[in-house]
Write a structure and sequence with these properties.
about 325 residues; alpha/beta; Alpha-Beta Plaits; Rossmann fold; 3 domains; 4-stranded antiparallel β-sheet; 4-stranded parallel β-sheet; elongated
């Protein structure tokens, strides 16, 4: 597919999301099933346009004076993918699968408006009702924080020091542009792509199959670091979920002592078994029955709890 077909596909997905009020992933999946001719690169590019549009929908809509799927998709091309209106028009001119042209009114608005004149919550691409919470949490830097959240996310990984040093894991991921994260002790980061580029499928790497690293948000890694588990301790991970933070704490204990991983949702807990095997972790006991925790009363050195939990939060 050329850019025009990809752009039209993204507009269709955005319209589906608006009309049916459904999750983005579901809309993208259904589009792919209905357009099986589209390759993996096409689907990735369409997904990039959709997510780029939604993350910055408020500012896109303000600059276009139009927040329709067509307008915000074109705004992505202008603001995030590096096209000028003239260059994009030339790119789409002979593509019979391209979407309709951007209305003149929207183009005129885009060329005359400045984001600095928009309401501040629009500049930050957050709902107006959320702004007071951002101001409380981040003070004078709240707008910069909000704008950072509207950008594409990086891919964060954690080196599993039971199998490989962080330096070794980074070396294995050299072609993906991996580098050491700034805060988490064993964190690794791969920068977000631009335009049609997509993040690498790191789970297909041999180093992942060997258990050298796990995919894990750096924020979750920092939480695990702050627990400061030590060799020989008894640690309860009371909201273990898929085991991400459990797996992050185990190497710090060098497989000594015990981590008791429990979650009230057995389905969320299920993936932990295979993850523990791949990581070479031997000091974790998995519990799916709260009654089994009664024997731990007054015996634990550390307890990690997500409170309040959100149910489908990060592992």
């Amino acid at each position: 597919m050329r850019l025009g077909g990809r752009l039209e596909g993204a507009i269709s997905v955005l319209a589906d999301i608006d009309q049916r009020k459904r999750p983005v992933a579901d809309a993208l999946k259904d589009w792919g099933l209905a357009h099986r001719f589209a390759g993996s690169g096409d689907r990735a590019a369409i997904g990039n346009i959709v997510y780029d549009a939604l993350r910055m929908r408020l500012s896109h809509g303000f600059l276009m004076d139009d927040d329709s799927p067509l307008a915000i998709a074109y705004a992505v091309m202008f603001r995030q993918w590096g096209f000028t209106p003239e260059a994009l028009a030339a790119e789409l001119s002979d593509d019979r699968f391209a979407p309709p042209s951007l209305p003149d009114a929207a183009l005129t608005a885009f060329q005359s408006r400045a984001l600095s004149s928009a309401p501040v919550h629009v500049q930050g691409d957050i709902p107006e009702w959320v702004q007071p919470s951002f101001e409380t949490a981040f003070g004078d830097s709240w707008l910069a924080e909000a704008q950072a959240l509207a950008s594409r996310p990086t891919l964060d990984l954690r080196a599993n020091i039971l199998k490989a040093s962080r330096e070794k894991a980074v070396k294995a991921l050299e072609r993906a542009g991996a580098h050491e994260a700034k805060i988490a002790r064993y964190g690794i980061r791969i920068a977000a792509g631009e335009g049609a580029s997509r993040l690498p499928n790191v789970t297909a790497e041999l180093a992942f199959q060997k258990g050298w690293f796990e995919v894990q948000d750096e924020g979750s890694q920092i939480v695990a670091d702050l627990v400061l588990p030590k060799d020989g301790e008894q640690v309860l991970d009371y909201c273990a979920g898929g085991g991400g933070k459990t797996l992050a704490m185990a190497p710090a204990m060098h497989n000594k002592g015990q981590i008791h991983a429990y979650d009230a949702d057995r389905k969320r807990l299920a993936p932990i078994i295979e993850r523990l095997k791949r990581a070479g972790t031997r000091n974790v006991q998995v519990h799916d029955d709260a009654k089994a925790l009664s024997s731990l009363r007054a015996r634990c050195d550390k307890v990690r709890v997500d409170a309040p939990g959100t149910g489908p939060g990060p592992g």
